[in-house]
Amino acid sequence: MDDPTYTPRRTPAAQTVALRGLRYHLRRWGEAAPAGTRPLVLLHGWMDCGASFQFLVDALAEAEGFERQVFAPDWRGFGLTAAPPTDAYWFPDYLADLDALLDALVPDGDVDLLGHSMGGNVVMSYAALRPQRVRRLVNLEGYGLPATAPDDAPARLVQWLDELKTAPVLRDYANCAEVAARLRKNNPLLAADKAAWLATQWSAPTPEGCRRLLADPAHKRVNPVLYRREEAVATWRRIAAPLLFVEGDRGEFETWWGHRYPREDFESRLGVVPCVERERLAPCGHMVHHDQPEALARRLASFLG
């Protein structure tokens, strides 16, 4: 028997916005921001999509004192947002897309921003560069990347050039059940009903009757530009908004990065942000908004006010 599928409690409206030459898809919960509140904008991580936040939005609807308009876009080349005519993706484009999105949605005033993983790294940089646009900031397991050295640059560029010679591909799945199984393999804490629902949002049918992930395969190519720790620290130091940093007790920071990115390095980076609150949820892995949506919603309601 098939696993039951999660039923969303708050149904989003689909919206398309023209941004920087792309048709950007986003989900909107709520017709307008209630008086005296600012919209909450949720930014997903790599190989994910805006629908990923549905469980959190449903939990927020039950959280005491929380009444907001919420937006969750699909980043360029993810979900239902078009892929640009390019064979590589650049981190600054996410910043520019977010800047244009906020100009379109909230031309005046500030918003509350939440980002997960890659999205967490984007919102950290954006809050530093546009402090007047961010009232409160939430980062879910967006740690940045390990420090690099200039001597790493030639090998990285060679790798990028080599990868450009072959078209990247994403594997096909026989059906949504296979996609759901993949999601649960990646995250054993993900409930079966949520995995079944996410599979329908995370993938689309192919002409051959299979399912394929909604992501541009070009995202799999290595970034030719090295991550520069000193530049990231200089940027984070400019963050003016109060920050809530949330991680799971079963997150894979040490397992994923090992000696390449010591925990002490991350703590020193986060230490330059002037106003930080911390939250550690359990049991919880990297996908905080999937594993503990109710606990996260309660913490957000308190932090965002």
From TrEMBL:
<dbReference type="InterPro" id="IPR029058">
    <property type="entry name" value="AB_hydrolase_fold"/>
</dbReference>
<dbReference type="Pfam" id="PF00561">
    <property type="entry name" value="Abhydrolase_1"/>
</dbReference>
<dbReference type="InterPro" id="IPR050228">
    <property type="entry name" value="Carboxylesterase_BioH"/>
</dbReference>
<dbReference type="InterPro" id="IPR000639">
    <property type="entry name" value="Epox_hydrolase-like"/>
</dbReference>
<feature type="domain" description="AB hydrolase-1">
    <location>
        <begin position="39"/>
        <end position="292"/>
    </location>
</feature>
<protein>
    <submittedName>
        <fullName>Pimeloyl-ACP methyl ester carboxylesterase</fullName>
    </submittedName>
</protein>
<dbReference type="InterPro" id="IPR000073">
    <property type="entry name" value="AB_hydrolase_1"/>
</dbReference>
<dbReference type="GO" id="GO:0003824">
    <property type="term" value="F:catalytic activity"/>
</dbReference>
